[in-house]
Amino acid sequence: MKKILLPTDFSENSWNAIKYALQLFKNKTCKFYLLNTYTPVIYHVEYVLVEPSQFDMGDTVRENSVTQLNNFKTKIEKEFNNSKHTIETIAAFNNLISEIKDLVKEKAIDYVVMGTKGATGIKEVLFGSNTVHVFKNVKCPILAIPDGFTFETPHEVLFPTDYQIDYKDYHIKPILDIISPHSTRVNVLHATYGYDLSEEQEKNKKTLEKYFEKSAHLFQSVSNQTVEQGISSFQLKTPINLLVMINNKHSFFQNLFFKDTIKHIGFHLNIPFLVIPSKTNKT
């Protein structure tokens, strides 16, 4: 059974990500955890030191969270009536990142699925700061769904890599689990600047070939292009339904997402994006 965490702030953006998850995993037995985190509008030391029940405002915020979670649960069960799926709601007095990290460990979560836009809805920032913090801090596969993206079966997956990773099951299994019910081709893309692959890179590439041997796959390389340019030019030739990257701190992923400030990311995506950590809580 897959365990999938669905953080929500009850926005249309988060509902869109929830719908994507329910459709993507419709043929798998899953337990979905519908999560909302809250803090009172006025949050100060006295609130923590004294019984929260003495502050009606805190109770009101919690009740609102619980009510909206139940409304979302009812909406899911009505629109996506699936006997393979069970849903549990969690209203947590915590900040979002800490709660996600705790639940990933406590519940052995397989995927976190969330929208890419924060509640502020700033159009220039495709990846909301919450999403980027989750990429950076949570050791679990994260599936980020762009605002307004309508579900498409992931027939074409793009997997850029620099072959600098010693690939293990926990890197590749999240990809295989997603593509296994579908006729999917994995396009492995390597951006090169004219240098031959090192011995280690060649070894890692062969490891990848073994992992994908039972799936349709294609190894490609682009010359003298940045990773962003390679992804963009590939999308022009082949419509991609899912982008996958491994978040390895020594790889181009870190340069792509964290070279600028957290709030200003120049890399824009209009397709779902699966981010797999280089290490998990179990490694």
From TrEMBL:
Entry-linked CDD domains: USP-like (cd00293)
A Pfam cross-reference name: Usp
Highest taxon above the source species: Bacteria
Ranges of residues in domain UspA: 1-146
InterPro entries assigned: Universal_stress_UspA, UspA
Gene3D superfamilies: 3.40.50.12370
Family that this chain belongs to: Belongs to the universal stress protein A family.
PANTHER family: ADENINE NUCLEOTIDE ALPHA HYDROLASES-LIKE SUPERFAMILY PROTEIN (PTHR31964), USPA DOMAIN-CONTAINING PROTEIN (PTHR31964:SF113)
Protein name, entry field: Universal stress protein
Phylogenetic classification of the source organism: Bacteria, Pseudomonadati, Bacteroidota, Flavobacteriia, Flavobacteriales
